[in-house]
Amino acid sequence: MVDAMKDTIVIVEDAPLYQDMLKNYVKTLGFSHKICRDGGEAIEFIKQNIEHITAVLLDIYLPNIDGISTLGHLRRKHPDLPIIVISGSDDLDDKRITLELGALQYFQKPLQFTGIPYDNTLGGCLTALKRAA
């Protein structure tokens, strides 16, 4: 289980470098986190803890259940859950598909945390979600 507050970000990422980077970043924004290494783990965790989750950060290329399949499943089961895709894919079809499936935003790796307007960053998205919660 997670803390009793609705300030948990689920990070669905199989690369340890990005797991650590995203974990540290969401902590600086005041969120708790849960790292899931594949889509199946994320689906199960979210099913059991939905009332505590603010948003999901979802990679596309994952073992077992990929990010696009995970996004489709989560959208059907939890249509109001904010899901932000973060992927190394520069394939425009991946971006189009995830946005059509209901992703709130699509950010391409490597992530840029400075030099662009804050509202257009991952931090801007998460801060806005925290205010709305």
The shape is: globular
Topology pattern, helix = H, strand = E: EHEHEHEHEH
Compute the average pLDDT.
88
* Rg from alpha-carbon coordinates: 13 Å
Percent of residues in beta strands?
15-25%
Number of strands: 5
Task: Give the fraction of residues assigned to helices.
Answer: 40-55%
Protein model, in words:
- The chain is α/β, with parallel strands linked by helices and 133 residues long.
- The protein is built from five helices and five strands.
- The protein has helices at residues 16-28, 39-49, 67-77, 92-100, 122-132, and strands spanning 8-12, 32-36, 53-58, 83-87, 105-108.
- Strands 2-1-3-4-5 form a five-stranded parallel sheet, with helices on both faces.
- β3 (53-58), α3 and β4 (83-87) form a beta-alpha-beta unit.
Summarize this, please?
The protein contains five helices and five strands. With 133 residues, it is of the alpha/beta class. Helix 2 runs parallel beside helix 3.
Question: Top keywords for this entry?
Answer:
133 residues, alpha/beta, five-stranded parallel beta sheet, 5 helices
SSE layout and pairings?
Blueprint: E1 8-12, H1 16-28, E2 32-36, H2 39-49, E3 53-58, H3 67-77, E4 83-87, H4 92-100, E5 105-108, H5 122-132
Helix pairs in contact: 2-3
